[in-house]
Design a protein that fits this description.
Elements: H1 15-27, H2 33-36, E1 40-45, H3 57-70, E2 74-79, H4 92-109, E3 114-119, H5 124-135, E4 139-143, E5 150-152, E6 155-157, H6 161-171, H7 177-184, H8 199-209, H9 225-244, H10 249-252, H11 255-267, H12 273-284, H13 291-300, H14 315-320, H15 323-330, H16 347-352, E7 377-379, E8 388-390, E9 401-409, H17 412-418, E10 431-434, H18 455-459, E11 466-469, E12 481-483, E13 503-507, E14 512-515, H19 519-527, H20 539-547
Parallel strand pairs: 1-2, 1-3, 3-4, 9-10, 10-11, 11-12
Antiparallel strand pairs: 5-6, 7-8, 8-12, 9-13, 13-14
Helix pairs in contact: 3-9, 4-5, 5-12, 6-7, 8-11, 11-12, 11-13
Bound molecules: FE2/S2 (inorganic) cluster and magnesium ion.
Magnesium ion binds near residues 122, 198 and 475.
Length: about 575
């Protein structure tokens, strides 16, 4: 029997009185005893006027409620923080852990037997899973789904790979002011998440592969009726999970399912952010993401999904081509099929649903991949003792092996102030270096790793350069960009010791990135290290600064990882 309203009755030291009070108050909302005496399914409400990606959350909540009630449960929606990429200052990553804490504590505090997590914009799904994993009750994810594509002058457009491409053309003087204004109304034509293989799509695909959401849930477009049916079905499953008292997220996030998620991340040419969020979700289950293993998976698992920014198509096309189940079928020899799922079975059940779609070109077969290897490689070298990552599937092949002169920017502000200065001493062969943009440095590890091409070079036709930093990059971006350099400059990492004029060698084939300066000189520079800014004295900024972990540990707070003692 479900615990329902009786869950967590510890207040007042009198369980009977506490239940009586709960009933008295909830009856104020018009509920009958019969309605209250059944499994209670919490539903996160992350609708916000500041989050257009979640614009369909209200309808999805209604669909989930319908599913819960059809299965004999009582749905209870409750608000949590919502985070949109473009409306979260200084960066959405800075707030992800706050959303995870909010979700964890609200799920734990309120009486519910299972929870349905409705989210989607980049940081929201990882935050919700981190929170639910720590709260330890059965949870199922319902992504809000991707936007449908936009059209402009006969061209298909998508947020936000084409936002960057179009803006680049505007910066280079090829698109004038009136046209770029028109384009701004066509890049994101519906509710839902960015429809390229950016972070939101990446997370939705990985979460489906982790068995935390229903088959097909990643790619059904946000405005489609099928998205609502997915919500209804998820509500039904949540009631079953409440009755079975499981599985809880920690039972689904295992070493095997993490490997499956890494395999999918490589095969979709996914966002580099996916790696950080996977490390954070794994950390909540007391597990680690092994970067060497991730690199090794990338050497044998090719990119199979032909989506921007690595390929040509968009998420709705992935859905029409068979979605994640079809991809999983293609990846079958690389997957651990006994990994459990929210449905109570194993990942094999998801593969069994895979449909053959004649003529589709979005999900490639293993013998005709989009790229011969996976999307990302892990780099090591004297610049990044704790590792760094490069999304080589979205890079310029000729730059993957490159040696050049460093042009250093000491902060995001410094870069913003100088990158377009006509007197900046920079050539196309140089390596642009951004320091102090990591977890503590910026703070919040902003997506500043996609340094713009200096305007004078962009106008001369330069489209890509080697760029390196301790920052992140949007999953919708492209270029020869080394990210997540660990340890970051702001904690004394070697990245902070680079000076303009030094030589840097990127050797992607051998997974190396080296600063070609001798160790004695680096030791001398290290003696002059000073943190780039004073530590914050109060509030969330202080908590963040004092406890945030490095990129290879998921940028979670040190006190939130692992498993509760009593669990
Ligand atoms: Fe929300 Fe891209 S801005 S998913
Ligand atoms: Mg993004």
């Amino acid at each position: 029997m479900s615990t329902g309203l009786r869950k967590g009755l510890t207040s007042y030291g009198d369980a009977g009185f506490s239940l009586f009070l709960r009933k008295a108050f909830i009856k104020a909302a018009g509920y009958s005893d019969d309605a209250l005496d059944r499994p209670i399914i919490g539903i996160t409400n992350t609708a916000s006027d500041f989050n257009p990606c979640h614009g369909n959350a209200p309808q999805l909540i209604e669909a989930v409620k319908r599913g819960v009630m059809l299965s004999g449960g009582l749905p209870m929606a409750f608000p949590t923080i919502s985070i949109h990429e473009s409306f979260a200052h200084p960066t959405s990553m800075y707030l992800r852990n706050l959303m995870a804490m909010d979700t964890e504590e609200m799920v734990r505090a309120q009486p519910m037997d299972a929870v349905v997590l409705i989210g989607g914009c980049d940081k929201t799904l990882p935050a919700q899973i981190m929170g639910a994993a720590s709260a330890g009750i059965p949870a199922i994810v319902v992504p809000v789904g991707p936007m449908v594509v936009g059209h402009h002058r006969g061209e298909v457009l998508g947020a936000c790979t084409d936002c960057r491409r179009m803006w680049g053309q505007h910066r280079a003087g090829k698109i004038d002011e009136p046209e770029i204004e028109v384009i701004s109304g066509r890049l994101a034509p519906s509710v839902g998440t960015c429809m390229v293989m950016g972070t939101a799509s990446t997370m939705a695909c990985m979460i489906e592969a982790l068995g935390l959401s229903l088959p097909y849930s990643a790619a059904i477009p946000a405005p489609h009726a099928e998205r609502l049916r997915c919500g209804e079905a998820s509500g039904r499953v949540a009631v079953e999970m409440a009755r079975r008292k499981g599985p809880v997220p920690r039972a689904l996030i295992t070493q095997a399912s993490i490997r499956n998620a890494m395999t999918v991340l490589q095969a979709i040419g996914g966002s580099t952010n996916g790696l950080v969020h996977l490390a954070a979700m794994a950390g909540r289950a007391g597990l680690k993401v092994d970067l060497e293993e991730f690199d090794e998976i990338g050497r044998r698992v090719p990119v199979l999904i032909d989506l921007k920014p690595s390929g040509d198509h968009y998420m709705e096309h992935l859905h029409h081509a068979g979605g994640v189940p079809r991809l999983l079928k293609e990846l079958e020899p690389h997957l651990e099929l006994d990994a459990p799922t929210v449905l109570g079975g194993t990942l094999r059940d998801y593969l069994d649903l895979a449909e053959e779609v004649p003529g589709q070109t979005v999900i490639r077969s293993r013998d005709n991949p989009l790229k011969q290897t996976g999307g990302m490689a892990v780099l090591r070298g004297n610049l990044c003792p704790g590792g760094a990552v490069i999304k080589h599937s979205a890079a310029t092949p000729s730059l993957l092996q490159h040696e050049g002169r460093a042009v250093v920017f000491t902060s995001v502000e410094d870069m913003t102030n100088r990158i377009d200065d006509p007197s900046l001493d920079v050539n196309a062969d140089d390596v642009l270096v951004l320091q102090n943009a990591g977890p503590k440095g910026a703070p919040g590890m902003p997506e500043a790793g996609y340094l713009p091409i200096p305007r004078k070079l962009a106008q001369a036709g330069v489209k890509d350069m080697v760029r390196i930093s301790d920052a992140r990059m949007s999953g919708t971006a492209f270029g020869t960009i080394v990210l997540h350099i660990t340890p970051e400059a702001a904690v004394g990492g070697p990245l902070g010791l680079v000076r303009t004029g030094d030589r840097i060698r990127l050797d992607t084939a051998n997974r190396r990135i080296e600063l070609l300066v001798d160790q004695a000189e680096l030791d001398r520079r290290a003696e002059d290290f000073k943190p780039p800014r004073p530590a914050p004295k109060r509030g969330y900024a202080k908590l963040f600064h004092d406890t945030v972990l490095q990129a290879n540990q998921g940028v979670d707070f040190d006190f939130l990882t692992g498993v509760d003692d009593e669990a």
